[in-house]
Amino acid sequence: MPAEMTNAVTEYREPAVESERGAVVAVLLMVILGVAGIFAVS
User: Which positions, given as ranges, span the membrane (predicted)?
Assistant: First the structure.
């Protein structure tokens, strides 16, 4: 029984971690583009 529970938890956690990583990458991209835009304007 515990093995099944941990398996379900890991299966549930993996997509959440992937989406978190995607969100972090998106935020970093927006910051980099914002800084590049500021330099381009000035």
Answer: 22-41
C-alpha span between 7 and 28 (Å, rounded)? 32
Rounded CA-CA distance 13/7 in Å is 10
Q: Residue 1 is encoded by which pair of tokens?
A: 């029984």
Identify residue 35 by its one-letter amino acid code. V
Question: 25 is written with which tokens?
Answer: 């990458």
* Structure token pair of residue 19: 């989406």
The reported pTM is 0.54
- The three-class DSSP label of residue 42 is coil
pLDDT number for residue 25:
94
